Amino acid sequence: MSHQRTIYINMLTMRGILFTILCIGTFSCQAPVQEEQYDKKGADVNNSAIIHQLNKELIGVISEDLFPPPVASRIYAYANVAAYEAVRGINTDCKSLAGQLNDLAPLTLEDKGEMYWEIAMISSFTEVAKHLVYRDFMLDTVYQHMIDTLKVKYLDETKFKASIERGLAVAKHIKEWADKDGYQETRNMPRYEPLEAPYAWEATAPMYGEALEPHWYKLRPFVMDSASQYRAPLTIEFSTEENSTFYKAAEEVYDIVVNAKPEDIDIAVYWDCNPGPTMVDGHSMQVRKQNTPGGHWVGIHSILAQKSDKTLSESCAVYAKLCTGVADGFIAAWDTKYAHHLLRPETFINRYIDKDWRPKLESPLFPEFTSAHSLISAVAASVLSGVYGEMAFFDDTNMAFGLPPKQFENVWIAADEAARSRLLGGIHYVFACETGFEQGKELGKLINESVKTSE
């Protein structure tokens, strides 16, 4: 089974490209149109599939590159802000994010007449995404096919070239903005030194690796005024006394995992979203590719947008809002995590309850409190519920990673299950999940109130 799954996942890139050919290729079956027949409203309504496909391809690239969740969230955010800023000219109601997102200045471009706005969007998205990933050649393949296919439909070479140039100009602006967010500086900062304290985080099996992204909270947020804006206090005092609140919280995790039902394990695995969990077989160790939390919610938005017939500009607007919110969620979560340095349940349980106990999921390599997955799921649900309300959906986002689809009544039920999955998987205390969820709701409220994409 694992061998088949490995083969299936390794085919992800090729399947994504083939899907693009099938999806975008439908345009080439249409009769060529003259320049004067290009209709912005019609293009906005009919070409929304393009941005969903671009994000699907980006999920595949991020998976291949094994970017950790915080880094992945940054990639989704900048790529989708670029897409929105490039395509918003297709709809006069669209409002620029300049002046709304921290340090994003307005961009004034020379007026070269009417554009093929989806061409500008494709160019902008892929150029920024390529700037942030390793396997940029994968995005080149997708870009070239989309552009070549649309050339058959849009015959005005001058306008086509101007549209690409506009997209590249927007991308240059976004890349320069991204390069000043502090990310590159964190690449050269000192490694994390675990604290020598009984409550402090330490590396866990099977990798016993270094703490992940210990300086992530130093990045410039997208909307928050600072990384600490939603920092949560740790109100439960660490204790190894058996009648203490902390001990009982660890004991709760222990009991849940020991007595786990198949459906509990299914939920934990469904929302694992650890992009590179390890599989140990004797002396052999392999890394299994999975989606990230941000990628999962990007996929859910794609499903909701297509189900509700969102136009291209509307879809891009929600992607930008969702992804900047999720990216800020990781910055906020990392600020809380590295303010408290709390140890994982696995470490506490092995020391004080049962040395042979193991969680159902691999404990992530960073401090426990707060639960980042709970936080960003609440942010995502806040943004998406503000657009789609109580819409039910069939989530097939992770089928490419070997997981079955699942029905949800609305995004809040999905977000609540995502938060609960961390407890069921044995990698978080319940108070971390609950706190993270509340932090996410507060941050989601800020995103909804502060980021406006329509006049």
Describe what you observe in this structure.
The protein has 455 residues and is mainly alpha-helical. The protein folds into 2 domains: 2-184, Vanadium-containing Chloroperoxidase, domain 2 (Orthogonal Bundle), CATH 1.10.606; 200-450, Vanadium-containing Chloroperoxidase, domain 2, CATH 1.10.606.20. It contains 17 helices and 4 strands. The chain has a two-stranded antiparallel ribbon with strand order 1-2. The protein has a two-stranded antiparallel ribbon with strand order 3-4. α5 packs antiparallel against α8 and α11 packs across α16.
Order of helices and strands, N to C?
Answer: HHHHHHHHHHHEEHHHHEEHH
Strands ordered across the widest β-sheet: 1-2
Unreliable sequence segments: 1-33
Total helices: the number is 17
Instruction: Give the DSSP E fraction (strand runs of 2 or more residues).
Output: under 5%
What is the residue-averaged pLDDT?
A: 91
CATH top level of the largest domain is Mainly Alpha
**What is the CATH third-level topology name of the largest domain?**
Vanadium-containing Chloroperoxidase, domain 2
Helix content: 55-70%
Q: What kind of sheet is the major sheet?
A: 2 strands, antiparallel
Per DSSP E runs of 2 or more residues, the count of β-strands stands at 4
**Form type:** elongated
Which CATH-level-2 architecture of the largest domain? Answer: Orthogonal Bundle
Q: Give the N-to-C terminal Cα separation.
A: 52 Å
Using the CA coordinates, give the radius of gyration. 22 Å
Total individual domains: 2
- Which class of secondary structure composition applies to the elements? mainly alpha
